[in-house]
Amino acid sequence: MSALPASAATATVTAPPPVLSPIPPEPAAPILTGVTPYAGEASAKEASANTTLSKSALQQQKAERAIEVARKQLGDPYVWGATGPRAFDCSGLVQFAWRKAGVKLPRTTWEMLSAVKKKVSLAHLKPGDLIFTSGGGHVGMYIGHKKVINAPHSGAVVSIDRLKGYWRSNFLTAVRPGV
Fold this sequence. Notes:
This protein is α+β, with helices and mostly antiparallel strands. The protein has a single domain (44-175), classed as endopeptidase fold (from Nostoc punctiforme), CATH 3.90.1720. The chain has 5 helices and 6 strands; from the N terminus they run ααααβββββαβ. α2 packs across α3. The N and C termini lie far apart (90 Å). Residues 1-25 are annotated as: Disordered.
């Protein structure tokens, strides 16, 4: 048997690091719809407010999409009875824009007036609301900042008007399409 060198005799031996087994992930919490994360602590009123907020946020998202679609039609000609994509009458424009946002509206202004139940005043307009003029024969979409996008009449093109003059003096009602 041979002798170990002096340096080897004083060397310390370290054990290999322990093998760690992976820790399994915690199971995902079940997905509960219409329930707040702390449902045990939240009141029914708070849970209802959270649901309302999500509906409101969805409504706003769809309204923004409808406005975006309508703006892309600026300059397209007015053609009576046209529903797009290259020409529109007033109700055809708002129907087209809201359909692209995922909301079905009836074809004519009169059908829209009777189908959409959420009526709003001029003072409470939100972007995406539909504004109807006297007699219900014309509709435009409120886009915010006191402006309306619409397909006005034969010989004109889809354009943006200020919410004054014609729109104020002939205002019949406004409605908020649902989600």
